[in-house]
Specification:
about 325 residues; 13 helices; single chain; TIM Barrel
Length: about 325
Protein backbone atom coordinates (compact mmCIF):
# COMPACT_ATOMS: atom_id res chain seq x y z
CA UNK A 1 0.00 0.00 0.00
CA UNK A 2 1.47 3.36 -1.05
CA UNK A 3 0.93 5.91 1.74
CA UNK A 4 1.94 9.55 2.17
CA UNK A 5 1.64 12.32 4.77
CA UNK A 6 -0.24 15.64 4.69
CA UNK A 7 0.85 18.05 7.44
CA UNK A 8 -1.05 21.20 8.43
CA UNK A 9 1.63 22.08 11.01
CA UNK A 10 -0.85 22.21 13.93
CA UNK A 11 0.12 24.15 17.04
CA UNK A 12 -0.93 22.23 20.14
CA UNK A 13 -2.13 24.11 23.25
CA UNK A 14 0.93 25.25 25.21
CA UNK A 15 3.14 24.83 22.14
CA UNK A 16 4.93 27.64 20.27
CA UNK A 17 4.91 28.00 16.49
CA UNK A 18 8.63 27.14 16.50
CA UNK A 19 7.93 23.91 18.36
CA UNK A 20 5.12 23.06 15.94
CA UNK A 21 7.39 23.58 12.93
CA UNK A 22 10.12 21.49 14.56
CA UNK A 23 7.48 18.78 14.95
CA UNK A 24 6.78 19.06 11.22
CA UNK A 25 10.45 18.37 10.52
CA UNK A 26 10.36 15.38 12.86
CA UNK A 27 7.24 14.10 11.12
CA UNK A 28 8.89 14.30 7.69
CA UNK A 29 11.92 12.45 9.04
CA UNK A 30 9.67 9.81 10.60
CA UNK A 31 7.85 9.50 7.27
CA UNK A 32 11.13 8.83 5.51
CA UNK A 33 12.24 6.29 8.12
CA UNK A 34 8.92 4.43 8.06
CA UNK A 35 8.53 4.21 4.30
CA UNK A 36 5.96 6.89 3.51
CA UNK A 37 6.11 7.91 -0.15
CA UNK A 38 5.83 11.68 0.17
CA UNK A 39 5.40 14.48 2.70
CA UNK A 40 3.33 17.57 1.89
CA UNK A 41 2.83 20.65 4.03
CA UNK A 42 -0.09 23.06 3.73
CA UNK A 43 -0.30 26.84 3.30
CA UNK A 44 -2.53 28.75 5.73
CA UNK A 45 -2.76 32.43 6.63
CA UNK A 46 -3.69 33.71 10.08
CA UNK A 47 -5.62 30.57 11.02
CA UNK A 48 -5.56 29.91 14.76
CA UNK A 49 -3.54 26.84 15.60
CA UNK A 50 -1.74 26.37 12.26
CA UNK A 51 1.91 27.36 11.88
CA UNK A 52 2.86 27.20 8.19
CA UNK A 53 2.17 30.20 5.96
CA UNK A 54 5.11 29.63 3.58
CA UNK A 55 5.46 25.97 2.53
CA UNK A 56 8.45 26.57 0.29
CA UNK A 57 10.54 27.78 3.24
CA UNK A 58 9.63 24.70 5.26
CA UNK A 59 10.39 22.47 2.28
CA UNK A 60 13.93 23.84 2.01
CA UNK A 61 14.38 23.26 5.75
CA UNK A 62 12.96 19.74 5.58
CA UNK A 63 14.64 18.81 2.31
CA UNK A 64 18.05 19.62 3.77
CA UNK A 65 17.42 17.24 6.68
CA UNK A 66 15.93 14.31 4.76
CA UNK A 67 17.31 12.41 1.81
CA UNK A 68 14.80 10.22 -0.03
CA UNK A 69 11.17 11.10 0.77
CA UNK A 70 9.36 13.26 -1.80
CA UNK A 71 8.49 16.68 -0.39
CA UNK A 72 5.86 19.12 -1.59
CA UNK A 73 3.22 21.75 -0.98
CA UNK A 74 -0.28 20.70 -0.09
CA UNK A 75 -1.03 23.25 -1.42
CA UNK A 76 0.50 26.40 -2.78
CA UNK A 77 -2.47 28.76 -3.20
CA UNK A 78 -1.74 29.87 -6.76
CA UNK A 79 -4.30 32.73 -7.02
CA UNK A 80 -2.06 34.72 -4.65
CA UNK A 81 1.07 34.43 -6.79
CA UNK A 82 2.57 34.84 -10.24
CA UNK A 83 3.29 31.48 -11.93
CA UNK A 84 6.81 32.58 -12.85
CA UNK A 85 7.74 33.09 -9.19
CA UNK A 86 6.30 29.70 -8.21
CA UNK A 87 8.22 28.07 -11.08
CA UNK A 88 11.47 29.71 -9.96
CA UNK A 89 10.91 28.73 -6.33
CA UNK A 90 10.14 25.09 -7.01
CA UNK A 91 12.80 24.76 -9.70
CA UNK A 92 15.21 25.95 -7.03
CA UNK A 93 13.97 23.29 -4.61
CA UNK A 94 14.11 20.60 -7.29
CA UNK A 95 17.68 21.64 -8.12
CA UNK A 96 18.67 21.36 -4.48
CA UNK A 97 16.74 18.12 -3.93
CA UNK A 98 16.69 16.37 -7.33
CA UNK A 99 13.59 14.38 -8.31
CA UNK A 100 11.99 14.80 -4.89
CA UNK A 101 9.82 17.91 -5.24
CA UNK A 102 6.03 18.13 -5.77
CA UNK A 103 4.04 21.30 -6.41
CA UNK A 104 0.53 20.80 -5.09
CA UNK A 105 -1.68 23.62 -6.35
CA UNK A 106 -4.87 24.87 -4.67
CA UNK A 107 -7.31 27.71 -5.13
CA UNK A 108 -8.81 28.05 -1.63
CA UNK A 109 -8.17 31.25 0.39
CA UNK A 110 -6.46 29.38 3.24
CA UNK A 111 -7.44 32.04 5.75
CA UNK A 112 -9.76 34.99 6.47
CA UNK A 113 -10.83 37.54 3.87
CA UNK A 114 -8.48 40.10 5.41
CA UNK A 115 -5.53 37.82 4.67
CA UNK A 116 -6.65 37.42 1.05
CA UNK A 117 -6.89 41.19 0.68
CA UNK A 118 -3.47 41.67 2.25
CA UNK A 119 -1.89 39.13 -0.13
CA UNK A 120 -3.49 40.36 -3.36
CA UNK A 121 -5.91 42.98 -4.64
CA UNK A 122 -7.59 40.54 -7.01
CA UNK A 123 -7.99 37.17 -5.31
CA UNK A 124 -11.43 36.35 -6.73
CA UNK A 125 -10.38 37.40 -10.22
CA UNK A 126 -7.34 35.14 -10.03
CA UNK A 127 -9.46 32.22 -8.75
CA UNK A 128 -11.47 32.47 -11.96
CA UNK A 129 -8.19 32.76 -13.83
CA UNK A 130 -6.71 29.61 -12.27
CA UNK A 131 -6.78 27.57 -15.52
CA UNK A 132 -4.54 30.14 -17.20
CA UNK A 133 -2.29 30.47 -14.15
CA UNK A 134 -1.86 26.71 -14.12
CA UNK A 135 -1.19 26.63 -17.86
CA UNK A 136 1.50 29.29 -17.51
CA UNK A 137 3.11 27.48 -14.57
CA UNK A 138 3.34 24.26 -16.58
CA UNK A 139 4.89 26.11 -19.53
CA UNK A 140 7.48 27.77 -17.29
CA UNK A 141 8.40 24.45 -15.70
CA UNK A 142 8.64 22.58 -19.01
CA UNK A 143 10.06 25.51 -21.01
CA UNK A 144 7.60 25.09 -23.86
CA UNK A 145 5.67 28.31 -24.36
CA UNK A 146 4.67 28.82 -28.02
CA UNK A 147 7.47 30.48 -29.99
CA UNK A 148 5.49 33.69 -30.45
CA UNK A 149 4.62 34.00 -26.72
CA UNK A 150 6.15 36.90 -24.80
CA UNK A 151 7.64 34.43 -22.30
CA UNK A 152 9.00 32.01 -24.90
CA UNK A 153 12.61 32.88 -24.08
CA UNK A 154 12.15 33.52 -20.36
CA UNK A 155 13.75 30.90 -18.09
CA UNK A 156 12.58 30.08 -14.56
CA UNK A 157 16.08 29.47 -13.30
CA UNK A 158 17.76 27.43 -12.01
CA UNK A 159 16.61 24.65 -14.34
CA UNK A 160 16.64 21.20 -12.70
CA UNK A 161 17.34 17.99 -14.62
CA UNK A 162 13.65 17.08 -14.29
CA UNK A 163 10.87 19.58 -13.54
CA UNK A 164 8.93 19.29 -10.27
CA UNK A 165 5.81 17.10 -10.32
CA UNK A 166 2.66 19.27 -10.49
CA UNK A 167 -0.59 18.23 -8.80
CA UNK A 168 -3.96 19.93 -8.59
CA UNK A 169 -5.66 19.57 -5.21
CA UNK A 170 -9.42 19.78 -4.98
CA UNK A 171 -12.74 18.54 -3.66
CA UNK A 172 -15.02 19.06 -6.66
CA UNK A 173 -15.76 17.93 -10.20
CA UNK A 174 -14.53 21.31 -11.42
CA UNK A 175 -11.02 20.81 -10.03
CA UNK A 176 -10.93 17.20 -11.26
CA UNK A 177 -11.83 18.21 -14.81
CA UNK A 178 -9.24 20.99 -14.78
CA UNK A 179 -6.54 18.52 -13.74
CA UNK A 180 -7.70 16.15 -16.48
CA UNK A 181 -7.69 18.90 -19.11
CA UNK A 182 -4.14 19.96 -18.21
CA UNK A 183 -2.94 16.36 -18.06
CA UNK A 184 -1.64 16.52 -14.49
CA UNK A 185 -2.04 14.43 -11.34
CA UNK A 186 -5.00 14.99 -9.01
CA UNK A 187 -5.31 14.88 -5.22
CA UNK A 188 -8.85 14.64 -3.84
CA UNK A 189 -9.36 15.93 -0.29
CA UNK A 190 -11.86 13.41 1.06
CA UNK A 191 -11.23 14.61 4.63
CA UNK A 192 -12.66 18.04 3.84
CA UNK A 193 -15.36 17.26 1.28
CA UNK A 194 -18.97 16.10 1.36
CA UNK A 195 -18.99 15.57 -2.41
CA UNK A 196 -19.08 12.18 -4.11
CA UNK A 197 -15.36 11.54 -4.37
CA UNK A 198 -15.73 8.23 -6.19
CA UNK A 199 -17.60 9.77 -9.13
CA UNK A 200 -15.32 12.84 -9.16
CA UNK A 201 -12.20 10.67 -9.43
CA UNK A 202 -13.86 8.59 -12.15
CA UNK A 203 -14.66 11.79 -14.09
CA UNK A 204 -11.00 12.83 -13.80
CA UNK A 205 -9.78 9.51 -15.17
CA UNK A 206 -12.27 9.47 -18.03
CA UNK A 207 -11.48 13.04 -19.08
CA UNK A 208 -7.68 12.84 -18.67
CA UNK A 209 -5.68 14.08 -21.65
CA UNK A 210 -2.08 13.01 -22.16
CA UNK A 211 0.25 15.97 -21.85
CA UNK A 212 3.90 16.94 -21.91
CA UNK A 213 3.72 16.60 -18.12
CA UNK A 214 2.13 13.14 -17.77
CA UNK A 215 1.03 10.26 -19.99
CA UNK A 216 -1.60 8.81 -17.66
CA UNK A 217 -3.85 9.91 -14.76
CA UNK A 218 -2.67 9.53 -11.18
CA UNK A 219 -4.84 10.00 -8.09
CA UNK A 220 -4.08 10.62 -4.43
CA UNK A 221 -6.96 10.29 -1.98
CA UNK A 222 -6.40 12.26 1.23
CA UNK A 223 -7.99 10.80 4.36
CA UNK A 224 -8.06 11.80 8.03
CA UNK A 225 -6.96 8.94 10.28
CA UNK A 226 -6.01 8.40 13.91
CA UNK A 227 -4.50 5.09 14.97
CA UNK A 228 -3.65 3.81 18.46
CA UNK A 229 -3.03 0.51 20.20
CA UNK A 230 -6.72 0.19 21.17
CA UNK A 231 -10.00 1.50 19.75
CA UNK A 232 -10.70 3.19 23.09
CA UNK A 233 -7.41 5.09 23.01
CA UNK A 234 -7.85 6.07 19.34
CA UNK A 235 -11.34 7.42 20.04
CA UNK A 236 -10.12 9.36 23.06
CA UNK A 237 -7.37 10.98 20.97
CA UNK A 238 -9.78 11.70 18.11
CA UNK A 239 -12.40 13.25 20.40
CA UNK A 240 -9.81 15.57 21.92
CA UNK A 241 -8.53 16.59 18.49
CA UNK A 242 -11.99 17.26 17.09
CA UNK A 243 -13.07 19.26 20.14
CA UNK A 244 -9.90 21.36 19.92
CA UNK A 245 -10.58 22.07 16.23
CA UNK A 246 -14.24 22.89 16.89
CA UNK A 247 -13.58 25.22 19.83
CA UNK A 248 -10.84 27.10 17.97
CA UNK A 249 -13.15 27.54 14.98
CA UNK A 250 -15.71 29.09 17.37
CA UNK A 251 -13.10 31.47 18.77
CA UNK A 252 -12.90 29.76 22.16
CA UNK A 253 -9.53 30.17 23.89
CA UNK A 254 -8.59 26.80 25.39
CA UNK A 255 -4.81 27.04 25.51
CA UNK A 256 -4.87 26.02 29.17
CA UNK A 257 -6.19 22.58 28.16
CA UNK A 258 -2.90 20.76 27.64
CA UNK A 259 -4.07 17.21 28.41
CA UNK A 260 -6.67 14.95 26.83
CA UNK A 261 -8.33 14.58 30.23
CA UNK A 262 -8.76 18.36 30.55
CA UNK A 263 -9.92 18.77 26.97
CA UNK A 264 -12.40 15.89 26.98
CA UNK A 265 -13.81 17.17 30.31
CA UNK A 266 -14.56 20.55 28.71
CA UNK A 267 -18.33 21.26 28.85
CA UNK A 268 -19.88 20.85 25.40
CA UNK A 269 -23.37 21.53 24.09
CA UNK A 270 -25.56 18.98 22.33
CA UNK A 271 -24.98 20.86 19.08
CA UNK A 272 -21.20 20.66 19.52
CA UNK A 273 -21.38 16.94 20.27
CA UNK A 274 -23.50 16.37 17.17
CA UNK A 275 -21.01 18.33 15.10
CA UNK A 276 -18.13 16.23 16.42
CA UNK A 277 -19.97 13.01 15.57
CA UNK A 278 -20.47 14.29 12.02
CA UNK A 279 -16.76 15.11 11.78
CA UNK A 280 -15.88 11.59 12.96
CA UNK A 281 -17.78 10.09 10.04
CA UNK A 282 -15.12 11.50 7.69
CA UNK A 283 -12.30 9.86 9.68
CA UNK A 284 -10.73 6.45 10.17
CA UNK A 285 -10.25 5.83 13.91
CA UNK A 286 -9.01 2.65 15.56
CA UNK A 287 -6.36 -0.02 15.93
CA UNK A 288 -3.75 -0.71 13.23
CA UNK A 289 -5.77 -3.67 11.89
CA UNK A 290 -8.98 -1.63 11.71
CA UNK A 291 -7.21 1.31 10.05
CA UNK A 292 -5.57 -0.97 7.48
CA UNK A 293 -8.91 -2.54 6.58
CA UNK A 294 -10.53 0.87 6.16
CA UNK A 295 -7.64 2.25 4.12
CA UNK A 296 -7.78 -0.76 1.80
CA UNK A 297 -11.54 -0.27 1.44
CA UNK A 298 -11.04 3.37 0.42
CA UNK A 299 -8.27 2.40 -1.98
CA UNK A 300 -10.53 -0.13 -3.69
CA UNK A 301 -13.71 1.96 -3.73
CA UNK A 302 -12.11 5.17 -4.97
CA UNK A 303 -9.62 3.44 -7.29
CA UNK A 304 -6.87 5.74 -6.04
CA UNK A 305 -3.20 5.15 -6.81
CA UNK A 306 -2.04 6.41 -3.42
CA UNK A 307 -3.48 7.38 -0.04
CA UNK A 308 -2.36 10.47 1.83
CA UNK A 309 -3.04 10.58 5.56
CA UNK A 310 -3.65 13.67 7.66
CA UNK A 311 -3.50 13.20 11.42
CA UNK A 312 -4.04 16.01 13.91
CA UNK A 313 -3.90 15.28 17.64
CA UNK A 314 -3.61 17.24 20.87
CA UNK A 315 -0.20 15.73 21.65
CA UNK A 316 2.50 15.49 18.95
CA UNK A 317 3.58 12.12 20.40
CA UNK A 318 0.13 10.64 19.64
CA UNK A 319 0.40 11.93 16.09
CA UNK A 320 3.84 10.39 15.57
CA UNK A 321 2.71 7.12 17.11
CA UNK A 322 -0.30 6.97 14.81
CA UNK A 323 1.88 7.25 11.72
CA UNK A 324 4.27 4.62 13.10
CA UNK A 325 1.49 2.14 13.82
CA UNK A 326 -0.07 2.65 10.37
CA UNK A 327 3.29 2.13 8.69
CA UNK A 328 4.03 -1.03 10.65
CA UNK A 329 0.66 -2.44 9.61
CA UNK A 330 0.42 -1.19 6.01
CA UNK A 331 3.82 -0.39 4.50
CA UNK A 332 6.40 -2.90 3.35
CA UNK A 333 9.80 -1.18 3.33
Amino acid sequence: MKLSILDQAPIAPGQTAKEALDTSLSLAQLGEEYGYNRYWIAEHHDLKGLACSVPEVMLSYIGAQTSTISIGSGAILLPYYKPYKIAETFNMLQTLFPNRVDIGIGRAPGGPAEASNALTNQYLQEVWNLPQLLEDLLHFLHRNFPKDHEFANLVASPVPTQPPHVWLLGTSKKSALLAAEKGISYAFGHFMSDNDGESIILEYKKAFKKSFAHQKPYVILTISAICAETDEKANEIASGSLLLTLLRSEGVVIEECTSLEQLNAYPTSIKQKEKMEEMKKKMIIGTPKKVREQLQKYLNEFQADELMIITNTLHPEDRMNSYRLISDECITI
